[in-house]
Design brief:
single chain; 368 residues
């Protein structure tokens, strides 16, 4: 797994701060790791770049408790991760959206025929709207204006709609350059889902992991790192990225209007949306897909978030992978694992009630 120096430093610091031990990592619910201290072998995962920093922290903590285990992760994007998992090329996937109920009818080559998969919401993070405009450090935007920018309806930074929301800002007569993901991205799907729900008059495209053909000046960039680089390297640019990367790079970010206030992203504001949202209907046991409510007016809520899922088989064709995957996911969901991710990536730890449901889903993995 190749990570930025920020990811590596954050993960190491998080694990060191928590001083995880093999003993602690074997206790549920405090650390949630497998009770089998003789684990050995290698498992591979692939998927969302949004949770790359968190995966590094989880891997460092789990391997510290189980030194004979190696976990690798290719942060190639959610779409690539789901495809690799479905093809049986990796033992688990990270994805910023779950498989849909229609997709669950397809074959998963790494899973035993007739068995299902589990989908675990273990990474909760705000999606930051990032921008770079010389002389402008902060912006307040409502859903309609944000959708106007990304849809190509607003083409200049001194547009009256932006000026009305930012009376104290000196906005330049400068063209807007929208930076979006070039790859199939769960971050894109979550971001466009917010625009579609909160500003349907301005954003008419259905939520999708692939950016639509919007008018205006657009720049496509590969992965989270590509978007961050393109926005920070330009002037008049605006994009979206996992908030952990925005914080690492010191980028300017947008406060979003919710009700009567403008809310900046935070782990607490992101977690508030999840706790207020139901699970999707029509899902089987262990499939914990959450239907996010992006239109809430509740105080202190930041609605542009992603939930990144860990996805695994209930029963593996390669039986040797099962106990390692189960142990790893136990650690990911544990209080220690969630705290390590929060320290390294700024994510929001899952609640105790959600952890109980996640643990029950992990218990469906056959690891004899």
């Amino acid at each position: 797994m190749k990570l930025s120096r920020f990811a590596q430093a954050g993960a190491i610091a998080a694990v060191a701060a928590l001083t995880l031990t093999a003993c602690a990592a074997n206790e549920r619910p405090d650390a949630g790791s497998t009770t089998d201290t003789t684990l050995s072998g290698t498992i591979a995962g692939a998927g969302a770049s949004s949770q790359e920093v968190a995966v590094q922290a989880w891997t460092a903590g789990f391997q510290q408790a189980h030194p004979d285990v190696e976990v690798t992760y290719d942060a190639a994007g959610s779409g690539a991760g789901r495809e690799s998992f479905q093809a049986g090329a990796v033992a688990f996937a990270g994805s910023d959206r779950p498989f849909t109920t229609e997709e669950l009818g397809d074959t998963f080559a790494g899973c035993t025929d007739g068995t299902g998969i589990i989908q675990l919401p273990t990474y909760i993070s705000p999606i930051a709207v990032i921008f770079n405009i010389d002389g402008v450090e902060e912006l307040d935007l409502d859903a309609a204006t944000l959708a106007g920018l990304f849809s190509g309806g607003i083409t200049k930074w001194n547009d009256p709609a932006i000026a009305a929301l930012n009376p104290d800002a000196t906005l330049p007569d400068l063209a807007v350059t929208v930076v979006h993901r070039a790859d199939d991205s769960g971050t894109t799907e979550n971001f466009t889902d917010y625009l579609f729900q909160a500003a349907p008059a301005e954003w008419t495209w259905e939520p999708d992991g692939v950016w639509p053909e919007t008018p205006g000046v657009n720049e496509a960039a590969q992965g989270t790192s590509g978007v961050v680089s393109a926005v920070s390297g330009g002037n008049g640019t605006i994009g979206y990225a996992d908030a952990s990367r925005a914080s690492e790079e010191g980028l300017s970010t947008v406060a979003i209007k919710v009700g009567d206030e403008f809310v900046r992203y935070s782990p607490e504001a992101a977690a508030a949306v999840v706790d207020a949202s139901p699970f999707e209907d029509g899902r089987e046991a262990g499939d914990l897909a959450i239907a996010l409510d992006r239109t809430t007016d509740a105080a202190g809520v930041y609605p542009i978030i992603l939930i990144s899922y860990m996805i695994a088989c209930q029963d593996y064709v390669d039986a040797a992978s099962a106990p390692i995957v189960k142990g790893y996911l136990d650690f990911v969901a544990s209080a220690e694992g969630q705290d390590a991710a929060a320290a390294a990536a700024g994510s929001a730890p899952i609640s105790d009630s959600l952890r109980d449901k996640v643990n029950a889903a992990i218990d469906l993995i056959v690891a004899e």
